[in-house]
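Subject — a protein and its fold
Fields — amino acid sequence, C-alpha cells
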Amino acid sequence: MSVRDLRGAKRHWVLFGCLIWLTFALFPLYWVAITSLKSPVDVVGGPTYLPFVDFQPTLKAWTELFSGIRGEFFSNFWSSTIVALSASVIATIIGSMAAYALVRFTFRVRLMSGITFFVVAMGGFLFGREVLGIGPATASIIAFCIALALSIFINRFKLPGPVLGNDDIVFWFVSQRLFPPIVVAFALFLLYTEMGKLGFRMTDTYFGLTLAYVAFSLPIVIWLMRDFIASLPLDVEEAAMVDNVPTWRIFFGIVLPMSKPGLIATFVITLAFVWNEFLFALFLTNSKWQTLPILVAGQNSQRGDEWWAISAAALVAIVPMVIIAGLLGRMMRSGLLMGAVK
C-alpha cells in the first residue's frame, strides 16, 4: 500500500470518528426534540425513536407552553434575554477594563491592608449592628465604605508582611468562583431583602438580577480577557502614547478593536453561563423577572416529571444559544485559539 493510500485510509478513519462524535453530540438534542412531540402515553410507554413510525407526533406540549398553561413563557423568555444580554455586555466591558489594567500596569497590594479591610468591615458591621442598633444593610454599607477607604489609604505606607502583585490579584478574582453558589445566592438574598427595607427594592427586579450576574461573571471574564490582551503587541499602544493619546482612548480605540475575537469568545461564554444559571434566579426572583431555567424546572405536576413539557421548554432554552454560537462561531473559535496559543 502506497503512502497516498495510507493517508486516504487515515482520513476515512478520522471522518468515521468525527461522525461517531457528531452522533453522540446531536442525539441528546434529537431525543429532546422528539420527546417534546410525544403524548404522555408515548413517553411512559417505553422508548420510541422515529416519528410517524414508532409514535404519532403531537403538538400538545408546545401548545400548552405557548398558551400559558405551563407558565408565563413569553415573560420568562424576555426576562432571560434582557438580563442575559445586559449582564454579559456589562461584565465583558468592565472585565476587559480590569484585565487591561492587570496586564499593562503594575499593582502592589500589601497583605496587611487586605487584612485591615476584612477586620474593619466585619468589626464595623458587628459594632453597628449590635452596639448602635443599625440595620444590617446600613451597617454593611457604612462598614464597607470605611474599610475600603482605610485599606486604600494605609496601602500607600510600608506595612509589614508580603506584597501581592498582579498574578495574586487575578488569583483572588478567580478564587471567588470557588465558593459554593448556594452561599453567595443566600447572602445576596439576605442583602437584597435588607436593602428592600430601606426602600431600595432589589429582589425580583431587573437591576438586582443583572447586578448579581455581572458580579458572578466578572472573575471568568477577567481571567479570559487577561490572556487575550497580553497577546496583543505593544507597538501600537506605545506609538499612541508618544502622541499623547489618553489611556481611555487607547483602550477603546485600539485595544478593544484588536481584541475583537477574544471579546466575542468571552461574551459568548459569559452569555452561556448567565443564560443557563438557575440558582440566583431561584433565590432573587419570584414572578416578574423569572428566567427560562426556572420555567423548565417547573414543568412537573403531582404525578411527577412531565418529560414532554420539560423537553419543549428545554428546547426553547437551547435554541437561542445554538443560534448565537452559529452566528459568532468563526470569530469565537479564532478568539479561543488566540487564548490557547497564549
Observations:
- Residues 3-35 form the longest helix (33 residues).
- The two ends are 41 Å apart (CA to CA).
- The mean pLDDT is 83.
